[in-house]
Hints:
Elements: H1 5-10, E1 17-23, H2 29-37, E2 45-52, E3 59-65, E4 77-78, E5 87-91, H3 102-113, H4 117-124, H5 134-159, H6 177-190, H7 195-204, H8 208-220, H9 226-237, H10 243-251, H11 261-277, H12 286-297, H13 302-308, H14 320-350
Antiparallel strand pairs: 1-3, 1-5, 2-3, 4-5
Organism: Oreochromis aureus (Israeli tilapia)
Domain Paraneoplastic antigen Ma-like C-terminal: 164-324
Protein name: Paraneoplastic antigen Ma-like C-terminal domain-containing protein
Amino acid sequence: VxxxxxxxxxxxxxxxxxxxxxxxxxxxxSDIEETAQSVKVFGRVKVRDRLTDTQTGNNLVLxxxxxxxxxxxxxxxxxxxxxxxxxxxxxxxxxxxxxxDFSAKLKKxxxxxGKTIDDVSALLSTETPQENSPESIIRAVGDLLAKTMRPxxxxxxxxxxxxxSGQSPTPAGEESLDSWVEQARLIIEECDCSEREKRRRIxxxxxxxxxxxIQAVRxxxxxxxxxxxxxxxxSAFGSLESGEDLYLTFRSLGQQRGEKLSDFxxxxxxxxxxxxxxxxxxxxxxDRARIDQLIRGATESEIMLLQLRLRERKEEPPTFLKLLSExxxxxxxxxxxxxxxTTVRQLKAEI
Length: 351
């Protein structure tokens, strides 16, 4: 459905109109208007027309504001107030913009994809000089998008965040705040996708009170970063303890009765990560703090500490992953020795 069909049919000013995509057919006009008005820059919004998208079966909804729309302040999507997949926002003025906007669009695209003009130039360098035309630039941008978007599509399933609502106790099938934050930070730090895609994945995983917090963040700042989303949720639902308080809690942790040393180490690491995030300990002191507390708190695994010679290695402590690998290997050896001794005792008893 062509966007330019809407203003002709409804007779409204395209500078004050926009289209919402992928709106379910069962949404009331009032729900659509309230959702659109959650984008602060739109102000008061009225639904003017609806058309069915034959490809998706959902509605395209034409909306009108009371003032001219400022395109650079409009987010690409809006989250329905009742939850569910985001709705894409298209401005009617976009369909009639001139080619003079190409430079601005290209710059915006490169920012969103984390690329520079050198990346485009590298793709153009294989073209002959006479091919440095608008067509060749478009082909280069297409190649650039193909390269940057391919990892995203391949990792979508494995990188999807689980649901977090902020409710306490944590409902069945949802993540606790700590677990959700861990996953979200991993996506933010390691995913090759754009900032927009990271924000979309975070929003898709939220509902209830957690979603309301992010809607408030987006109203105040439509361009808020994914990191800001996570920080807002931590402020709203996380512990109010300072970094110093969290460090004291970390220093009080001890191995529980029957707890394996590797499990104790993982528990220490979760606590230590929070300490560093809240500024309770410089990152360069993490390895030393970890091994100190492991030795101090491992009251159930004294023999294993001796076998691993951890006290002698405090001045040059191993990283978390190396230490975990060594402990698990030693635990496996201990298990094999125990099973062998049990078998020998059984054979002797039979004799």
